[in-house]
Write a structure and sequence with these properties.
538 residues; alpha+beta; five-stranded mixed beta sheet; two-stranded antiparallel sheet
Length: 538
């Protein structure tokens, strides 16, 4: 049994979920009470429990497994940030380098969460749509980051130019805007209804988390303290919701079908966006918010965005052409397959017609003789017994009731011979009222006589023949016929096919008319039969 179907596994996961929730409650209480050092240490265990929750749930995430891995790694990096932060806190905050590493860990975790959102798009959308989403979100994030940079430079705290701290803040801002745009565009592409509840949990948490990060960036730029007890609680609440969302058992079973929003006007959207960026840049330049360098940068961003969009459109066209080609190939393959089936059916029918007697539906003379030749040439089915069969009292039926009634009788004879139900036998109509039965692997005389007895029994049963005439009348008669059967085999009697057929016929005509009922004679017993029969006649 898989570990994901095991009761103990789900029980342990439930226990871990309760532990994580309990640690979060403790964190909230400690934060509100102002226990700074305690909360700094306690968040390490809280982050570890949330990372463990996602890790043990990865086996149930199905097609979203890669997205789940990204969120797990994001929380893992966040945990590293908590560890460094707690260590610095225990040292009385006297290690700025450790604090800087912690801040960078938190920034990296934001990027890993963003990577998870991008991977989700890659799993849900086709390649061109996924690229279009990423390019549009990236463009918005770049433009707003450039504006944010200029805003920070214009503020007195950063009027000396760019710094490491400003770069960190802009990176926070960039990834937050990128995450928000990814969430908004995905929601626009897939609609607001029909999603798994885990989708809504992660979506809302990502939006709230990103908005808080933007607030953090803004507060730092305007030189105000961004730290807030309630904000810290919301940070960890968002991450807790992330981890709880991935625990929902059927998260990997829900399939999202993106809306087909691509229209003929889609190709004009990049141009509209580029014009908007350029107009906005000129306006900001005219009000002296941008300098000439920033204006040039925005023009480069607009051109880069246009190039990326055109590349995406080219990829989408290639993807569409490839899909059409694949569909056309599949259609042609299906047509070829259908034609092959039709030809095979036609060939099978032709083979059936060429091998089958039209009246009795038994094998015809040509097939019977070819089959016999193959058996003799192969040699692996020796001995081969040949039964030559001729109907008694059939000619009077044709003479007195007509050939149509005779055909009815022959069809019934063919049906009975075809129903012998012997795997090693085939029945053949040679023509007229003459038939053959070919019996391979006739290893003993008992089996040979057994087949003959079956044939005699079948032929001795009365035949109820009904004929519908052309004038609408129905003729019904019961006929009592019988069969005379001569039997010869290879290799006991001969090794030559023509001779085998002749000897079976000789035995047939020797036994013919010696009994009112069906009878048979083995060629090897023919001389003894003649002597006995002659004595009886004398």
């Amino acid at each position: 049994m898989s570990r994901f179907n095991d009761y103990s596994y789900y029980k342990n996961r439930r226990v871990l979920q309760i532990v994580a929730a309990a640690l979060f409650v403790i964190f909230v209480v400690a934060t509100l009470l102002g226990w700074v050092l305690f909360t700094d240490i306690e968040t390490v265990f809280l982050s570890a429990s949330m990372a463990a929750l996602i890790y043990i749930s990865l086996g149930t995430t199905g097609k979203y497994n890669r997205t789940g891995i990204c969120f797990f790694l994001g929380i893992l990096v966040w945990l590293l940030g908590d560890i460094f932060w707690a260590y610095n806190s225990m040292r009385g905050g006297s290690m700025p380098i450790v604090e800087h590493i912690s801040d960078n860990m938190y920034l990296v975790s934001d990027y890993v969460f963003l990577l998870g959102a991008i991977v989700y798009c890659r799993d849900v959308f086709k390649k061109s749509d996924y690229q279009r989403i990423a390019v549009n979100a990236f463009a918005v994030a770049i433009v707003t980051s450039v504006i944010g940079y200029r805003f920070a430079i214009n503020y007195h705290n950063y009027n000396h130019g760019i710094s490491v701290e400003l770069v960190d803040l802009l990176l926070y801002f960039f990834v937050s805007v990128f995450s928000i745009m990814i969430a908004v565009i995905v929601l626009g592409r897939t609609g607001t209804k029909g999603h798994h509840k885990a989708f809504y949990m992660i979506l809302v948490s990502m939006l709230v988390f990103s908005l808080i990060e933007i607030r953090f960036t803004y507060m730092m730029i305007i030189n105000k303290d961004p730290e807030n007890d309630y904000i810290d609680i919301i940070y960890y609440l968002c991450i807790l919701v992330y981890s709880f969302a991935w625990m929902i058992p059927d998260i990997g079973e829900k399939v999202i079908t993106p809306k087909d929003r691509v229209s003929k006007k889609e190709k004009y959207v990049p141009w509209f966006n580029v014009i908007f960026i350029l107009v906005l840049s000129v306006i900001l330049y005219s009000v002296h918010f941008f300098g000439s360098n920033m204006l040039l940068l925005m023009i480069i961003v607009a051109l880069a965005y246009l190039i990326m969009c055109k590349t995406v459109q080219a990829n989408a066209l290639a993807e569409e052409l490839l899909a059409r080609q694949k569909d056309e190939t599949a259609r042609l393959e299906k047509m070829v397959e259908e034609k092959v089936k039709e030809l095979q059916a036609a060939n099978d029918h032709l083979e059936y017609v060429s091998n089958t007697d039209a009246l009795t539906k038994l094998y015809n003379r040509r097939y019977g003789m070819e089959h016999l030749e193959k058996l003799v040439k192969d040699g692996s089915t020796y001995p081969i017994a040949l039964y030559s069969l001729d109907l008694n009292y059939f000619k009077p039926i044709n003479d007195n009731y007509g050939h149509d009634m005779g055909d009815v009788v022959l069809r019934e004879v063919g049906r009975r011979l075809g129903n012998l139900k012997q795997d090693r036998c085939i029945s053949v109509r040679m023509g007229g009222d003459e038939f053959l039965v070919i019996f391979k692997n006739a290893t003993n005389e008992v089996a040979v006589r057994g087949i003959a007895d079956l044939i005699c029994k079948a032929m001795d049963e009365p035949i109820d023949a009904t004929l519908n005439t052309e004038d609408g009348k129905t003729m019904s008669h019961t006929f009592n016929i019988s069969a005379s059967i001569g039997i010869a085999d290879i290799p006991s009697d001969t090794n030559d096919i023509e001779d085998l057929y002749k000897k079976a016929d000789d035995a047939l005509y020797t036994v013919k008319h010696t009994s009112e009922k069906s009878s048979y004679l083995l060629y090897r017993e023919m001389d003894e039969f003649k002597k006995t029969h002659n004595k009886q006649e004398q």
